[in-house]
Amino acid sequence: MKITTQLKLTIAGLTCLAVGATALASTSTQRGALDGSVVNKSGIVRGATQRLVKLETNGQPNDALIQTLDQLINGLINGDKTLNLPKATDPGYLVKIEEVNSSWQQLKTTIVQYRQNPNLKSKLLEDSEAFFELTNEAVFAAENFSIANINRISATQWGVLAVNLGVLAFVFWTIQRAAKVLQRSVMTVADSSSNIASTVEAQERLVADQTSSVNATTATIEQLGASSLQAAQQAGSSANGAREALDLSETGSQAVKHTVEGIEELKDKVSAIADQIMQLSEQTDQISTISGLVADVADQTNMLALNAAVEAARAGEQGKGFAVVAGEIRKLADQSRDSAGKINTLVGAIQSSINSTVMVTDEGNKTANTGIKVAQDTADVFNRIAAAINEVYTNSQQIAQSAKQQAVGVQQAVSAMNAINLGAKETVTAVSQVQTSTEQLKNIAQELQVAV
Predict the structure, then answer these.
(1) What is the DSSP letter of 167?
(2) What percent of the chain has pLDDT over 70?
(3) Most CB atoms closer than 10 Å: which of 175, 346, 349, 350?
(4) Cα R_g (the chain), whole angstroms
């Protein structure tokens, strides 16, 4: 069992013993007072009866005294709080006081008879003497009962004293044991206090270094927070620029799309022109063919006119008119041949122009196809650029969001570091207080070591 538990139980036992002894002493005192009151009241009954008889024999009856005696005797038997009398419990005394009560009833009857017949004085004195003897015996019984109670109380007190001595011996033994344990504990506490003091000093230095590191870390994190905010702002600006570039690329894509549509429309028109030029070439070929036929007809007509002129010359006068007609026909044939030549020349020039136009148209077709391909490639490039810019815009937004979150996290880290810094300062204060308390504990342990 622990010494502290033993001491607590001992103190509790002593407390209970003290309470019991006090209660016993109080009860004994009250009982002694009641016993004394019984003895006293018994003696009063004895003396008051003798006085009552004297008054009666001297012709001075006293009914108030008789009532007082009735109350006293009844209180001695049944108890009376007003008279400080307990109920009779001792068998010996109870027998005696009941005999006193019977004798008193007889004596009261004799008194009544004496008042009516004074010649009964001798009987009154005899009854008074008998009552006196019985009352005397009751007083002795009350004294014996009181002495017995006193003896019991004395024995009880001696028992309580023995128990007190035993408890005190146990307390002395417990204190001696506790003193030895306390001395060993004091020595251990003294050594531990020295070790704790050294440890606290080292911890104080570590906490001071930690505080410096926390301050430096806080400054660094604050700079990081400012950089994060600046990065968030720059990322936001980049996102805005990327958005503008995305809008411009979409505008360029629309322009390229319109260009492709215009080139395709131009290609269709060039193809239609090429078809019309081919038709024109075929028509010029037909004109050249017809012109050749006209030239042949003119040559044949010229030959026929020449033959007609020869025949007209042979005919003489009759053929002059015909010769004139043949000459005119010949002129017309020459004109027709010249016109056919000019037509052929013009057709050749037209054919040459048509061929050049066909070549130019073909080159225009090729150029249009190339332009369409280039425009489509440009549109693809614009689409890729738009996709890249869109990705840049998305990444910029994510970077801005991440930078903002990082800035918030940095602010939270700064708050946490400030809290750590405050906690470190409080720790330094607590360590200083612990060091002071440890020094005080060490001094107390040394004083206890000396005292114990």
Answers:
(1) H
(2) 83
(3) 350
(4) 77
